[in-house]
Amino acid sequence: MSPLSRRALATAALAALLVGCNGGPGEDGAAPARPATTAPPSAHASAKPVPPVGRSVPVGLGIPAIGVDTPVMRLGLAADGTVEVPPVTDDDRAGWYRHSPTPGQLGPSVILGHVTVGTHGDGVFRRLGELHRGDRIEARLENGTVATFAVTSVRTVAKAEFPTDDVYGDVDRPELRLITCGGPRTGEEYRDNVIVFAELSATSPATS
After folding, report:
1. Contacts of 96 (CB under 8 A, 6+ apart)
2. 47: how many CB neighbours lie within 10 A of its CB?
3. How many C-beta neighbours within 10 Å does residue 21 have?
4. Looking at the record, which segments are called Disordered (predicted)?
């Protein structure tokens, strides 16, 4: 990873504490808190690794277990250095952080989404905390490839204790991170982040 990418990811790591998941007062769309379900190290060691794929921007995301089938937009950094999030009017869309690897490349690819956006409707990641280890995530890429990931853990963590290294740090295989807000809510702010960790399990051509 280049020094520029590392700096951008470090900035995003801090900004992820404030990932935009706000909703209108009185609307409670928080994903339920749950214990981490990290696979033991032996589970990774025994699985045959799937080779990384070439860089190709994600254009769609499917998570069958929670009924997600959404377009994916590109996100960067805002003028104040915080990570961009999908506009509240695009509550049904996820956003790929373009300074991270594309899904299926070596390293952690990062995708953000709202949990709730009040009067604009429920966020695309409102049920993210319901995922379990082994659940399937499909990233549809611009080049026609589908990169399929298997969930390895789901964590709900306090924003003040955001696991920066775990989310943005270097890894030796293609992985995916899905991030939204969760936990108790005060006004328009959630206390926690819900983070899904997944690793590449297969690649295939897209079907029409």
Report:
1. 57, 58, 72, 73, 74, 75, 102, 103, 109, 110, 111
2. 13
3. 30
4. 28-51
**Domain spanning 3-205, CATH class:** mainly beta
Which residues face 70 on adjacent strands? 61
Phi, psi (degrees; rounded to nearest 5) at 143: -85, 5
In this structure, which amino acid lies at residue 142?
Answer: E
Token pair recorded at residue 98? 């373009």
pTM (2 decimals)?
Answer: 0.80
User: Domain limits of the chain?
Assistant: 3-205
Which positions ≥6 away from 179 have C-beta within 8 Å? 16, 19, 110, 111, 112, 113, 167, 193, 194, 195, 196
Three-state secondary structure readout of the chain? CCHHHHHHHHHHHHHHHHCCCCCCCCCCCCECCCCCCCCCHHHHHHCCCCCCCCCCCEEEEEEHHHCEEEEEEEECECCCCCECCCCHHHCCCEEEECCCCCCCCCEEEEEECCCECHHHCECCCCCHHHCCCCCEEEEEECCCEEEEEEEEEEEEEEHHHCCHHHHHCCCCCEEEEEEEEEEEEECCEEEEEEEEEEEEEEEEECCC
Tens digits of per-residue pLDDT, 37-94?
Answer: 333 333 444 467 899 999 999 999 999 999 999 999 999 988 887 778 887 766 678 9
